[in-house]
């Protein structure tokens, strides 16, 4: 099919990213695609309309989508927005596939072919398309910065005329892409960093960044390179061993996640009670319930003089680079299937078939079907 790509403003409150950067717009046009974009869709990422050469601009999302057979998004569309998408068109974005049966039913009613980038197979070939990684790196970096900005101590060791200041102690729990970026950010700022993850491979990655690995003796590798949920005994062992490191930290950054599940609660109320006065918790898992029992998503609360932050949508705090990286991920995913201005999906491609959420009026992904109980 002759490729017409539609891009509208993101509608979620506070969302500043855009799915298409001017750099990627140029590359798609060079492949023969026609692009139509809602006016000022890139403005919050500081891409003005004039930066998008040869892109047609529409005065609303309805017009931006009217002719499209491929729609690029960052966040999932609303039900009203899905209604405006042409029947049978292709939709790509971070679709939060486990969140809403209603949204998936709407995709299927419209016969949309939907690719949810959260489902992308984590194989080497797909690294350049991995939006969870690119956005996770933004989140981890932001967690480090929030912690440093709110900490009442210097992160680095300082030797001053008034004597020496000891560096702050940071503990990072969960050392996937975001956790590793949080470690690297806090190390660059000079803190003493310890970190912990249940996956065995994480130890070497933590140590390669110059942080100390906290060994709890619990190892829980699951399928697809992800962690599995811990048993009750493992949770108790983990809590006992981690409590000491939590109590000694000035800052705890938590990023632990299990795909398709609520975030594991790792920092208990009792652990908070044993933390230093003025210590900080930055809970990156706030969006999926939080790794800290007291986290309030989107809020900053104080309990026992410990500051607990539950920030949401961290990549949107740095929308220019987050959008640039995200847009490149989309391009790397799509470009192998664009030839002479046509989009031809190759279902034998394991990356493409592994990422599809809906096609031909049906939900395709087995894990999503299982999690949603269908
Ligand atoms: P994620 O966001 O799903 O989870 C974050 C981290 O939390 C993970 O490292 C996980 O092990 C950890 N975790 C879960 N439960 C925990 C608990 N109870 N206590 C402590 N830590 C806990 O992870 P992610 O960043 O998306 O990465 C997941 C995996 O995918 C990693 O192995 C990563 O190296 C791998 N990966 C592969 C590629 C690729 O090859 N294309 C790209 C990115 C990530």
What would you say this structure looks like, in words?
Helix content is 32%, strand content 18%. α5 packs antiparallel against α10. A hairpin with a 2-residue loop joins β14 and β15. It is an alpha/beta fold. The radius of gyration is 22 Å and the shape is globular. The mean pLDDT is 96. The strands form four sheets. Strands 3-2-1-4-5-6-18-19 form an eight-stranded mixed beta sheet, sandwiched between helices. A seven-stranded mixed beta sheet has the order 11-10-9-12-13-15-14, with helices on both faces. The protein has a two-stranded antiparallel ribbon with strand order 7-8. Nicotinamide-adenine-dinucleotide binds next to α5 and α6.
Question: Which spans have pLDDT < 50 for at least 5 consecutive residues?
Answer: none
Largest sheet: 8 strands, mixed
How confident overall, as mean pLDDT? 96
Q: What class do helices, strands and sheet pairing give?
A: alpha/beta
User: Please, how many helices?
Assistant: 12
Query: Could you give the distance between the termini?
Result: 32 Å
Count of beta strands: 19
Spatial ordering of strands, largest sheet: 3-2-1-4-5-6-18-19
- Proportion of residues in helical segments: 25-40%
Strand content: 15-25%
Give the cofactors and ligands.
Answer: nicotinamide-adenine-dinucleotide
Instruction: Give the overall shape.
Output: globular
Radius of gyration: 22 Å
Would you kindly provide a brief summary of this structure?
The protein has 374 residues and is of the alpha/beta class.
